[in-house]
């Protein structure tokens, strides 16, 4: 198995006709934890959307979890996304279903059939984020931090090779942000690769790791102290 989980070479990223980022060349190795920082509008979300094929790769070469982004057909996107876990800022839990039913819905949608197997998997991922006791609660009964833990559990359901977290602490207070980061770091220490967009420089200082910056229409690695 290759040590590289994602690579981009001479990539230009577009939102409709507008070039957002240009001439990106980078590699992400298995097991890394990488921050992506930059001002609002600097292209962080466009970068992430390109990685999970919400934006098509039009110019340059890109490979992620063994998929060729430049040649990716629409029918293959669900297969790519089964190998990637995605965590959003706003949780995206279904409000009319319990935590268990939210996670079961994802498993059914990705081809799981056996009730007993689904129950075991849901218990396993909720255990990893410290939410197993909340399984029958509705999303509105949980705090923001608890909802984000469930969202992380959901991202783990299909044992993804890579987790993309787009501002996962953006709606959380500082203490809850630290708790969610501790969950993510533990998942990373257990071998998962994580790429995380964030505005929260306090978190980066507390949990230092490789950092990429979006600025002047490109992405480059920054030394920690200059963040």
UniProtKB/TrEMBL annotation:
Residues 6-227 form the ABC transporter domain. SMART domains: AAA. GO terms for cellular component: plasma membrane. The keyword Disulfide bond does not apply. Keywords: ATP-binding, Nucleotide-binding, Transport. GO terms for molecular function: ATP binding; ATP hydrolysis activity; transmembrane transporter activity. Belongs to the ABC transporter superfamily. Part of the ABC transporter FtsEX involved in cellular division. Important for assembly or stability of the septal ring. This is Cell division ATP-binding protein FtsE.
């Amino acid at each position: 198995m290759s040590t590289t989980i994602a690579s981009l070479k001479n990539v230009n990223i577009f939102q409709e006709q507008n070039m957002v980022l240009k001439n990106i060349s980078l590699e992400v190795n298995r097991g890394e934890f990488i921050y992506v920082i930059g001002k609002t509008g600097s292209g962080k979300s466009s970068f992430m959307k390109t990685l999970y094929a919400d934006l098509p790769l039009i110019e340059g070469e890109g490979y992620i979890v063994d998929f060729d982004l430049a040649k990716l057909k629409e029918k293959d996107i669900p297969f790519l996304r089964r190998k990637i876990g995605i965590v959003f800022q706003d949780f995206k839990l279904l409000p009319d279903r319990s935590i268990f039913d939210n996670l079961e819905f994802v498993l059914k949608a990705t081809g799981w059939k056996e009730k007993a197997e689904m129950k075991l998997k849901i218990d396993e991922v909720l255990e990893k984020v410290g939410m197993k006791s909340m399984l029958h609660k509705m999303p509105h009964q949980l705090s923001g931090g608890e909802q984000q833990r469930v969202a992380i559990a959901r991202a783990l359901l299909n044992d993804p090779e890579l987790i993309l977290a787009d501002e996962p602490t953006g709606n959380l207070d500082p203490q809850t942000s630290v708790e969610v980061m501790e969950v993510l770091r533990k998942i990373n220490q257990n071998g998962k690769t994580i790429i995380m967009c964030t505005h929260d420089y306090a978190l980066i200082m507390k949990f230092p790791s490789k950092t990429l910056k979006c600025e002047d229409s490109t992405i480059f690695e920054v030394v920690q102290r200059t963040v």
